[in-house]
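Example 3.2
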Amino acid sequence: MGLFDRFKQAAEPVSNKTVITAPVSGELLQLSETTEPVFSSEMMGKGVAINPSEATIIAPVDGTVTVAMPHAIGIVTDNGIEVLIHVGIDTVDMKGEGFENKVPQDTKVTAGTELLSFSREKVAEAGHDDTVFVIISNTPDCQEVVPVADAPVKAGDSVITVTK
């Protein structure tokens, strides 16, 4: 232990709460209530699922787009929270058909910025579920990830509180 390590330990940890909002309107569900095993088991991180009532996905936080795929967007907030928005179950199989990405990787976005749109009809025609997953992919780096209870939500409503 060095001389300055003692001072680092004595400092009070700073609690930093961040509110993650719904990227789409619909019916909010807990991950455990979904049929997708990777998300329902929280293997990818804690979060929520939304059965969408519309087909436009907006940014749930301010941050930088780090992943921009046709069916999924990853955003990192300035305080290091990694938010993954994934549209549908097995929609990667659609190879982008029916999806329109609105922002490229490395774009700075603010909460409410339109990220992507998708065709609910094309997702259904392809035999897939269009559930939208909102995952905190670096859950282990967070002190607490608390989703709200099941309820109807509108895009922009608070759905998860993260303490970093």
